[in-house]
Amino acid sequence: MAEHIETHNEQKNFLNVTSGFKSWFFTLDHKRIGIMYLVAILTMFLFGGILAILVRTELWTPERTIVDADTYNQLFTLHGAVMIFLVIIPGIPAALGNIVLPLLLGAKDVAFPKLNLFSFWLYCAGAIWAVVSIILGSADTGWTFYTPYSAETNTAVTPILFGAFLLGFSSIFTGLNFIVTIHTMRPPGMHWFRLPLFLWSLYATAIIQVLATPVLGITLLLLILERALGIGIFDPALGGDPVLFQHFFWFYSHPAVYIMILPAMGVISELINTFSHKHIFGYRFIAFSSIAIAIFGFLVWGHHMFTSGQSPLASMIFSALTYSVSIPSAIKVFNWLATMYRGNIDLKTPMWWALSFIFLFGIGGLTGLFLASLATDVHLHDTYFVVAHFHYVMMGSAMIAFFGGLHYWWPKFTGRMYSDRWGVIAAIIVFIGFNITFFNQFIIGSQGMPRRYYNYLEEYQFGHQFSTIGGYVMLIGFIIIAVYLAHSLFRGKRAAANPWGGTTLEWTCPSPPTTFNFEVTPVASDPYEHDRVIYDEATDSYRTVDQESVPDGGKHDS
Amino acid sequence: MTQVFPLLAQFTLALQSGGDGTFWMPPRSSTVAESVDSAFYFIYWISVFFFVGIVAAMVLFVIRYRAKSGRKRKKAPHHNLALELTWTIIPLILVIAIFWWNFKTFANLENPPRGAYEINVTAQKWKWLFTYANGYVTEELHVPAGMPVKLVLRSEDVIHSFYVPDFRIKKDVVPGRFNKVWFEAPEPGEHWILCAEYCGTSHSDMLARLIVHDPQSFEDWLAHADDMYLEMPMAESGQAMFERYGCVQCHSVDGTAGTGPTLKDVFNHEQAMTDGTTVLVDEDYIRESIVDPEAKVVAGYQPVMPTFQGKIKEEQIAWIIAYLKTISEHSPQSEIEAAQSVPEPAGEEGAEGEDQSAEEGETTAKDTAEKDQPAPDDSSESNGGEQGEE
User: Fold this and answer.
1) Quick one: closest CA in A to B37, which residue?
2) Interchain contact A540–B (C-beta under 8 A)
3) For residue B364, pLDDT beyond 70
4) What's this model's pTM, rounded to 2 decimal places?
5) How does pLDDT run across A538-548, given as a tens digit for each residue?
6) If you placed Cys at B210, which of A192, A312, B191, B344 could pair as Cys (CB 3.0 to 4.6 Å)?
7) Which residues have CB under 8 Å from A262's CB, separation 6+?
């Protein structure tokens, strides 16, 4: 085994096969594109995080703390838009998905490598427009761009709308690429029910990206036209309807919630399975629940408008349909727990992120019930309860899964290990900081604190200060992560092909892989058969063995 | 019973603003609040049950099945259809129960009872105005206790949202349509009205007080509500109107430019207009700017001010003019003095308190208050045009 690793280290891998700016910016290699996405997304995460810290710092006192009201409104708008459009939506699919999707298929690349590169360029263009909008007088509409406010405000709404429009195309192209790749490039032996669960979730995500994102594009374009030409689609003075914008917007943006959470669930399925060293429980229920969430997710957008004056009948139907999403979500959680049951749980860093996810998604998902319910939502709508809920789902679940996935596949694509001890410490700090920040926002929200408030009543100050402290705790956690990952890049121990005991195909190719990943197209069988990998104490890693040669399925201790 | 987190008891105290409030919810001050809260706690306890179960199982499994790298146990089943169907169907039944409970309460929230006392609400950046059947306008909402009150919501500009946490009611105020919301407060008291839909710079300052009177004192209040301004110096009444009609949101009185020009030191001054002409700001120009704001727009500003034609009374315009004189240099001194003095029968000390104005209201010389008494049954007719919408 040691010899095996030696030979690969001498070989050129995808990271060092060529060098220079052009070799990256014009690359067609899915792993390099994925890494460029990763760098861009982490940069944007840093930017969005600084905005969040500024927002939280301003809220330390009920009156002005560090910025004026207009600046505060711009800060939270930009924080939301950057985190949603530039970080979470592309986070798992475009960065991690690009890197590992072909590896999970035993393939050499995605189906359309040039389209893949083009979608990255569109991402960069979208990010540049977002920056341009800041220079021109950052938008102050909230990331939801509700009309008629967004049609009237003097701030630079149009550039950021155009940026989001471009990012939408980036997302569509990535989705299209993944659908075609999963359909056409599966290796011999991989029928649909041998698809790793991360790919089921990426597939479900891609369907939403392709079907829903065009609606966002059209809506943003209509709003740009409304601002530029006053066409009157949304302006009541010209016969338009501002609530129509909300319908258009949420017709995309609610499914977009599932663009963010489905891949996260897919990552968690992989992590729980690998670190429990046990076959995933209820594969088909998990796979079908991804598809069910993708389908039901299209039918629930009206639950954002229970207080808008839409017909009570419509509200009733949207509410009922919204619960349908909660069932497949619950199924996944129960299946993850059942996977851990009688497993061999190895508490490596990625598993800590996965456990965090179950805890935080439990809260995020269950508090969704209060908002899907008609009577309670009327009270809670547009309060901090909603803010807390979606941060538990977006940050506490989607971003936590992103970091879990990053730590899981890091050795694969960098070829280096990071400090597991610091990894665990950072995961715990982020988890604690997150709960300090957001849990009490449920309470101040249900007590009546509306969202997007620059000044607030003094009775809420205690809760806000709690949140602000939590924000800084999280910041410390992320700084630790940045430090040990940077250290790992240059000084980290060389990673073996399969450091965790993963059973899917990406762990059979070298770390880091060569440009074309696999020398021979592998043959796929059950993706979660743990008898196939056995622990090698000498290298502290796992190797794949021929199924027939290990009749007993590895070591047993009970 | 609801104090499930003893460690957060401090928190509970910090947030409880009244005896009726709970750890999660503000005081219950409307007739629907009780059923909203019981729906909330029904979901809450289901959530607590599942969350505690999930986390307990997770922690238990991590401890019980923790293993060093490479250790493996015997095989466990990959699936179990009966188990999986069970944990699909039980949550399904529970969410149907949650839905039904909430639907019944929502149906109640959405349907105002017949004969509810009606008040018109106008939202604008960043102010609430409440118009009663007799034409009286306030910036605090006064309502009778023990009687259903229906609000007809209208926006002057962007979307706002009318939110009273203590009543558990919220309804967006959408330009181009009349939304309605109703409540019944059983007890007299004071509550906050908040804007819950983001509406720009001063969104978070768009608060108003909601005052619940017992029914008799509500009628007395309404009968004499506007009288106090008749007893005050014109300039002070004008300042009150300047705030009531939201002028102050765009026009500063300290010289800084806002959405509109400042009104400090403009009276009796020349102002340049967008069409290049110059206008002397006098009584007539101020009146014209209020009722027909786009007729002559000050250079450097957009014609965005709404007209107040039909919303403001002539004598209220006169009061505002009197107020503007007091904040301008070069106003004739005699006029300032006239504006600051109480012109008619009230005594030297001025009648600033509501009590006194209520007593003397009948005798004032500037008696322009509407005579209409609040009459719940008539009000629906007088607002019939709006009620017909939607």
Assistant:
1) A376
2) yes
3) no
4) 0.82
5) 888 888 886 54
6) B191
7) A201, A202, A204, A205, A208, A290, A293, A294
